[in-house]
Amino acid sequence: MASIKTFLIALACLGLAACFTIGDSRRPIASESFAAPAESIQRPLVIVLPGFGVGVQGMKDHGVAQAIQEAWPEAEVQLADATFAYYRDGNLIQRLHEEVIGPAARAGRRIWLVGASLGGMGVLLYEHEHPGELAGIVLFAPFLGDRRLLEEISAAGGARAWNPGPAPAEATSENYQREVWRMIKTWAERPETAPPVWLACGDEDRLVAGARLLAATLPQGRYFELKGGHTWNTWLNGGKTVFANVRETSGNL
Fold first, then answer.
1. Residues contacting 143, CB < 8 A, separation 6+
2. Which of 12, 88, 200, 239 could bridge 4 with an S-S bond, Cβ 3.0-4.6 Å?
3. Would you say residue 24 lies in a domain?
């Protein structure tokens, strides 16, 4: 859905485009699951989408599943290899729905979708196309659009006051950022339509301005500004607090 040019420019500015894994969208989205260390009646499922240039192996190397389960031991964690190729080729949401999330939802699982950086935009795009399917979402320093759009929203006084213009027939590679923010504006205006959203970002992260704009639309206590930059170490150190709060409020114990 999102254009490769837009993502490459934005992510190159973060210094992330020097060495990365693109992946192969001709293949099914691979994943690796980590059984919950503790028993649970509802067995919550936490599916994690990687950031730009990272796949399952990179998330394993950073101990993503272990960090989540340290705070939420009743959760099964599934690391999805939703790499950049699926964004580039415009089939990420369809493939996630058909190959990863849809089967789990049909099996009655309560699914929390987690995304970092580029993966955060993937989470928001999925919620845009499949509203109400997820039990909740967790975002770590999500890519929320180019600077011009974020400045437009900020100048308007935030998402609540911002006028996104007429709604198009569908989200495309040209308008997907604006349509994600249209959804966020709806959450702010009608909180009952919003899924539970938890957000964390480093105070030295170059994406923190967008995170703060999004944070202003969330209920109090749902945004954590962490010490650090755009790294898994920052997100996972603070992420344990995030998932402990998710666990406490989700009812999935």
1. 7, 10, 11, 52, 117, 118, 120, 121, 207, 210
2. 88
3. no
- Which neighbouring-strand residues pair with 198? 138
Distance CA 145, CA 162 (A): 15
Using one digit for the tens of pLDDT, what is the confidence trace for 90-120?
A: 899 999 999 999 999 999 999 999 999 999 9
Tens-place pLDDT, residues 191-217 = 998 999 999 999 999 999 999 999 999
Count the helices and strands in the chain (H runs, E runs): 11, 7
CATH number at residue 183: 3.40.50.1820
How is residue 21 written in tokens?
A: 């894994």
Give all strands of the β-sheet with 45-49 in edge-to-edge order.
31-34, 76-80, 45-49, 111-116, 136-140, 197-202, 223-226
CA–CA dist 176, 180 (Å, integer): 6
Is 23 a member of any domain?
no
pTM of the model as a whole:
0.91
SS3 state of residue 142: coil
Q: Domain tally for the chain?
A: 1
For residue 223, the number of C-alpha atoms closer than 13 Å in the C-beta half-sphere is: 19
- 252 domain-assigned: no
Helices (H), the chain: 4-12, 56-61, 64-71, 84-88, 92-96, 102-106, 118-129, 147-155, 176-189, 208-215, 232-250
- Residue 21 inside a domain? The answer is no
